[in-house]
């Protein structure tokens, strides 16, 4: 095998192999950051970002994606009233996003490992901008479903690729920073999207075009901006084979992935509970009338999750995950107590406890698995992480959406919450009896 490999842009970078620790990973990052310019497709020279600016742009892309993921949520009750669709239809709209996201992850999750990060990122943000135009001009259920489906495709293209790019571009002087921020920034984006969209809805009757036109422009700008990143995954053969639907976990990552899977499933099942039923619970059962109040549960859960992840970054992956899964169980149980006490304040306080578990359990998982593979397998690994995450997030939430009209919102939330408590407690016990990180 040659000592160097040709990049899609004409530069050469040293061939890499899977890494198993932060020292080798730091070397990878240093090599990546050294690649600061490349020849453009037209034969000219295109200026590339490098070092901290490239890393910040990659992180900003993660935040922007997740802002768009949560921004539509406060609009659904408004659109439901305007367009006259049922709660079951709203659940179907949510389900379409989860299904198309999962399908895209299964097909294209490792594509950027073969064709490069830049083309997948640029294409994904263009598709995401198209979905925002659909929300902006939504005039019926069909338009909403199509927009949500296209958004799911874009998210499936982007999620694993962006997570891999963040690790690729991690500063060599800060090993481990990417794993921390890969858990913090998605939660921060979810919190910001729900909060800002709810505030705009309360402030103006023109919220729909303001929010989604802004996101459309932002995503088109990012589609152009990511082309300035250095290419960290040189093109190589096998991209057609990579499009076969699969969940591929690199061999070096399998032990850590097996240890992390119960916590991963429990954490995102908790997220699904709050993101799918939180706003209806606040609005219908706890007396929250404003859009900010109804979106507050998502903002609190994910905002506290992001803060807790950052504060817990110096703990070992095992300690973080054990704390996180325990808080998931405790916080969800307190949420059910607050629900039956009909206290909005107690409900939000319980969401803070669950949020600390949501964020830290995901941080522990990312810290465990990220150092196990090199750049050429990161897209594949993160794709598998998000497939499990969105199965845990989407399937129970869709089932709850269909159950609520038949059994009542309170009963559905109680059953869902108890299932989450059991899952989280089991994940905590499993981690307690595992000594390895």
Main attributes of the structure:
single chain; 437 residues; mainly alpha; Growth Hormone, Chain: A; two-stranded antiparallel sheet
Verbal overview:
With about 425 residues, the chain is an all-alpha fold. It has a single domain (about 50-230, about 250-430), classed as Growth Hormone, Chain: A (Up-down Bundle). The protein is about 75% helix and about 5% strand. It contains 16 helices and four strands. It has helices at about 20-35, 50-70, 75-85, 85-110, 110-115, 115-135, 140-170, 175-205, 205-225, 240, 255-285, 290-310, 315-340, 345-370, 380-405, 410-430; strands spanning about 5, 10-15, 35-40, 45. The strands form two sheets. Strands 1-2 form a two-stranded antiparallel ribbon. The chain has a two-stranded antiparallel ribbon with strand order 3-4.
The CATH C-level class name: Mainly Alpha
Count of separate DSSP helical elements: 16
Low-pLDDT parts are: 1-44
Shape: globular
CATH architecture: Up-down Bundle
Going by helix content, strand content and strand pairing, the class is mainly alpha
Q: Please outline the major beta sheet.
A: 2 strands, antiparallel
Query: Helix fraction?
Result: over 70%
What's the gist of this structure?
GO terms for molecular function: transmembrane transporter activity. The chain contains 16 helices and four strands.
């Amino acid at each position: 095998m040659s000592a160097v490999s040709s990049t899609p842009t004409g530069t050469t970078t040293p061939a890499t192999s899977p890494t198993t620790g932060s020292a080798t990973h730091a070397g990878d990052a240093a090599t990546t950051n050294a690649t600061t310019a490349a020849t453009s497709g037209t034969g000219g020279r295109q200026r590339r970002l490098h070092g901290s600016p490239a890393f910040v742009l990659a992180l900003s892309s993660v935040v922007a994606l997740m802002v768009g993921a949560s921004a539509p949520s406060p609009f659904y009750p408004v659109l439901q009233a305007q367009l006259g669709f049922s709660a079951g239809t709203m659940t179907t709209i949510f389900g379409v996003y989860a299904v198309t996201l999962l399908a895209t992850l299964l097909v294209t999750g490792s594509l950027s490992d073969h064709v490069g990060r830049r083309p997948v990122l640029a294409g994904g943000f263009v598709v995401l901008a198209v979905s925002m135009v659909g929300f902006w001009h939504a005039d019926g259920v069909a338009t909403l479903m199509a927009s949500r489906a296209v958004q799911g495709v874009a998210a499936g293209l982007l999620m694993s690729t962006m997570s891999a790019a963040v690790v690729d571009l991690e500063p060599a002087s800060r090993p481990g920073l990417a794993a921390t921020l890969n858990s913090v920034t998605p939660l921060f984006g979810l919190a910001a999207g729900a909060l800002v969209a709810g505030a705009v809805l309360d402030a103006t009757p023109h919220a729909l075009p303001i929010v989604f036109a802004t996101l459309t422009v932002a995503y088109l700008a990012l589609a152009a901006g990511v082309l300035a990143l250095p290419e960290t995954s040189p093109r190589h053969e096998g991209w057609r084979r990579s499009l076969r639907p699969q969940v591929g976990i690199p061999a070096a990552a399998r032990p850590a992935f097996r240890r992390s899977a119960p916590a991963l499933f429990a954490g995102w099942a908790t997220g699904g509970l709050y993101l799918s039923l939180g706003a209806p619970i606040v609005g219908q059962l706890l007396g929250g009338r404003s859009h900010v109040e109804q979106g507050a549960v998502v903002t609190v859960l994910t905002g506290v999750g992001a803060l807790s992840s950052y504060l817990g970054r110096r703990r070992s992956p095992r300690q973080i995950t054990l704390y996180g899964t325990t808080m998931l169980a405790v916080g969800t149980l307190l949420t059910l107590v607050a629900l039956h006490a009909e206290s909005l304040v107690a409900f939000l306080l319980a969401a803070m406890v669950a949020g600390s578990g949501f964020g830290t359990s995901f941080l522990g998982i990312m810290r465990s698995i990220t150092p196990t593979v090199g750049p050429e397998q990161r897209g594949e690994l993160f794709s598998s992480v998000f497939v499990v995450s969105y199965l845990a997030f989407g399937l129970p939430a869709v089932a709850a959406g269909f159950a609520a009209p038949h059994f009542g919102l309170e009963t559905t939330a109680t059953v869902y919450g108890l299932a989450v408590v059991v899952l989280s407690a089991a994940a905590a016990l499993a981690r307690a009896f595992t000594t390895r990180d």
